[in-house]
Amino acid sequence: MALTKHSRITLNDGHKIPVVGLGTYAPDEVPKSQAEEAVKVALEVGYQHIDSAFIYGNEVEVGRAINAKITDGTVKREDVFYTSKLWSTYHTPELVRPCLVKSLKNLQLDYVDLYLIHIPIEFKPGEDLPPTDESGKEIYHNTDIRDTWKAMEDCKEAGLVKSIGVSNFNHKQLELILNMPGLRFKPVCNQVECHLFLNQSKLLEFCKSHDIILEAYGVLGSTRDVNWYDQTAPILLEDPVLNAIAKKRGRTPAQVAMRHMLQKGIVVLAKSFKAERIKQNLEVFEFEWSAEEMATRNGLNQNRPLCNYSQ
């Protein structure tokens, strides 16, 4: 079946996720208002999937944009798939629901469509994001991730979220949850860094074998935020092979990179705050790659993560 901008993949709990979403992360120096305007543009041009997180600090603005587009009739709430994430100072079971409730309050929404454990690393509970000691080192905590998952399951059963999953987990961390006694809901997806330089082939195979969707961030490279990204890494969208392919096919490097992941059955998050780029990225459904072309782009893999939290 041909992919379109309204294509969705059925998750293991029966809900459906749009295959392309708008990512909204930006470094602290970028005004939060830019995320608000980007979400409005995205919903106006046909995106149905918006990805953010508690730690991004922009859920007030993102929620305002979603509600504005619902109010003016551009979209209906049931057509918008919204993802938020549990931050790592809230892994202790009694803090999971309060973190989600904070996000819902900021968003002015009754539920989120997908709620993820942001990273499999826990920081000391508290208001500091993240907490650090006198020498500036991060302070960690040791809640069993399976206890955190049970609290996530409670949130799903309470109707505060439609689906639950994880982010930045490797296969061993996923197995901890999949093999836990009394499991009520499997993770529906694992959102990880995945792009032409890091194709996550083994993790993709593992996830598919357990009916877990792989969702890719960093598909277009990164914002090169000094807090999260390797500053020595190459700039993905400037790769000469990628640009040669784009020129030959009359497409943008971003479209080339996105389409490759989509044809592998991966859900793609593409981040841009520029209206023209947001529109261009949704044109990824206007073409497709042959098996030979897919093999060529597979050859760009370097197993090279750009993000410090990649697993």
TrEMBL record:
Spell out where the chain crosses the membrane: none
Q: Which amino acid positions bind substrate, per UniProt?
A: H118
Pfam families for this protein: Aldo_ket_red
Instruction: Tell whether Phosphoprotein is among the UniProt keywords.
Output: no
Catalytic residues at Y56
Tagged with keyword Acetylation: yes
State the family it belongs to: Belongs to the aldo/keto reductase family.
Q: What protein name applies here? A: Rho crystallin
**Organism for this UniProt entry:** Engystomops pustulosus
